[in-house]
Design brief:
The protein has 127 residues and is mainly alpha-helical. 44% of the residues lie in helices and 6% in strands.
Length: 127
């Protein structure tokens, strides 16, 4: 992944798949990945189906590569290294504090934008 670009498609198994890159879509995916009432396989399948626009056409043999691409995308283009550490933020529980900081960095109310790429949102969050 080129971190100087804002990807809206993923190349998986020789095919290009449009992805849902808006921060609202990604926050929904993160909530689904953390849903305690579902087993891990179900959570991942739902996340993939929500992220890849044409997921139903994706061959099952490509699911692993698709999951790795999704995880790198969620991490702002960086691949996962090692085991995850302690959870530092809760996107849902801390939403009020997060959005106020993001809005301040963005200079606008980001929730009113028709589209805001996840990596742009992460950049403002990091500011």
């Amino acid at each position: 992944m080129n971190r100087w670009e804002l990807p809206e498609t993923a190349e998986i198994g020789g095919r290009t798949y449009p992805v849902h890159a808006d921060f609202r879509d990604i926050l929904d995916i993160l909530a689904r990945l953390n849903a305690p009432e579902e087993d891990e396989a179900t959570r991942l399948y739902v996340a993939l189906a929500l992220f890849y626009e044409d997921f139903t056409a994706m061959p099952e043999r490509d699911y692993q590569a698709a999951a790795e691409w999704l995880m790198a995308f969620l991490n702002g283009g960086e691949e996962e290294t090692g085991t995850p550490g302690a959870k530092l933020i809760d996107w849902e529980q801390d939403a009020g504090m997060i959005i106020s900081g993001v809005n301040k960095a963005a200079g606008c109310e980001v929730r009113s934008l028709p589209f805001c790429h996840w990596w742009t949102f992460l950049g403002w969050f990091g500011a």
